[in-house]
Amino acid sequence: MNKTTRKIYRGAQLSLAAAAALTLAGCGVGGPVDAGTKKDVAAAASEGRALKLAHVYDAGHPVEKCGVTTLTEKLAGSGITVKSFPGGQLGSEAQALEQVASGALDMSIAGPSFLGVWHEPAAVLDGAYLFESVDHFAKTLEGGTMKKIYTDLKDESGLQVLSGWYYGTRHVTSNKPINTPQDMQGLKIRTPDAPQYMLNTKIMGGTATPMALGEVYLGLQQGVIDAQENPIPTIATAKFNEVQDFVNLTGHLVQAVNVVTSESIYDSLDEAQQKALDEAMDVAAASVRECVETAEKDTLAAWKQGGSINVNEDVDRAAFMDQAREALPGQVSWGELYKEIQASK
């Protein structure tokens, strides 16, 4: 995506985010934390700084249940409280990130593809078949390469990445088995509305159809889309197994989601609060990884035994991997970085 296209994309998302914020505020959603009587406001002020955090995942998803809950617990007594708005209450992933950039929201949770709209190299973590294991993923996330990318992102956009949480390994669900890239041809596959997700699907052989996460169940049920791709915990909490026949273990993306604030919000915290927030983020990241890995294992086992969805383990991952690793580097600005991270395993 060139700079002009990126500006147009971001401008469109900003307009949508502003409209969403106004609409939600009018409905009483996304209002001030603990707003109400003067007594409530005074009580909130006595507790210190209240930060609003928005994300698109269901309240039962590990991001909320393990990540946000742990974050809140670890911040107790620090002078910081977190008010979470799960399930897309404050808009889509892109809209929430735009609200953070504009100062209308304190924190959001967004995938690397959405950060890549603001600073292209940040999308590298969402390159298909970049990682072969969660350990390789975690090593890269904590290494110097990503630290530099996040610093450059902050300098370019004012967005500051606080933490990266393991979101899970993405697989494709469908109503027919998908074993090879040829099986993806002609399928309308839902992706999040960010360029890298759409490119991944195209390279793997499908037709990308961007759609908000909250609309996917109905889209599958009504046949507007044929398939979708997500990690196992998201497929389970969104109940996509009720409207799809197969989960195909493509494993095409070992993925992070990033907790993002603005540089101005972070700098407005005192030194003790910044330290408490950083430490709480580290503990939350470890908690999310444990929860997601457990959910991936337990959910797959339950599906295999219960049969609510067929688990297709006959996927030719090598064919998908070879196709992606050959095609992707030449279609992105960070192709060489993609190759370097692959080789670092």
Describe the structure.
The protein is α/β, with parallel strands linked by helices. The protein contains 14 helices and nine strands. Strands 1, 2, 3, 4, 5, 6, 7, 8 and 9 form a nine-stranded mixed beta sheet that branches. Helix 8 links the parallel strand 5 and strand 6. Helix 1 crosses helix 4 and helix 3 packs antiparallel against helix 12. The N terminus is likely disordered.
First CA to last CA: what distance? 28 Å
What is the average per-residue confidence, as pLDDT, rounded to a whole number? 89
The dominant shape is globular
Count the DSSP helices.
Answer: 14
Radius of gyration: 20 Å
Largest sheet: 9 strands, mixed
- Count of DSSP strands: 9
Order of helices and strands: HHEHEHEHHHEEHEHEHEHHEHH
**Beta-strand fraction estimate:** 15-25%
In the predicted model, the low-confidence regions spanning at least 5 consecutive residues are: 1-9, 12-46
Structural class by helix and strand composition: alpha/beta
- The oligomerization state is single chain
Percent of residues in helices: 40-55%
